[in-house]
Amino acid sequence: MIMSTISSTADRRADAGGGILTMAAAATAELKRLWVAYMTWRVERGAIGLLGSMSDCELKDMGVTRSEIERLVKGQACERPCGTCSVADQCAAACSSGTLALRW
Q: What is the tens place of the pLDDT at every residue in 57-103?
């Protein structure tokens, strides 16, 4: 009887330690997810700010209108009818697929 009590106590301690590790791993994963979301937001806001500071003439040279800036930075789908996408739309599609990296 004493032996089974000691054994079950040791088993409970081992289970509790595993639970703590699982909770720590989950908390770490959540913090990482939040950090990545925050950094993505910061990069997007920086790009939107940079493009927003450009003149309409500079934006036109890239084939972008001021109303498209946020959509392009966030990589959202093209809203223009088929065949009328600008070079910037093609560039944004390439960036979101990872085949092109923009350098500003």
A: 999 998 899 999 999 898 876 665 555 555 555 555 555 554 444 44
Does the global pTM surpass 0.70?
Answer: no
Please give the residue range of the domain that contains residue 26.
2-97
In a domain, 104, yes or no: no
Reduce the DSSP state of residue 6 to 3 states and report it.
helix
Helices (H), the chain: 2-52, 56-62, 69-74, 87-97
Residues 6+ apart with CB under 8 A from 70: 48
CB atoms within 10 A of CB 2: 6
Instruction: Collect all residues with Cβ–Cβ distance below 8 Å to 44 and sequence separation of at least 6.
Output: 73, 74
103 in a structural domain = no
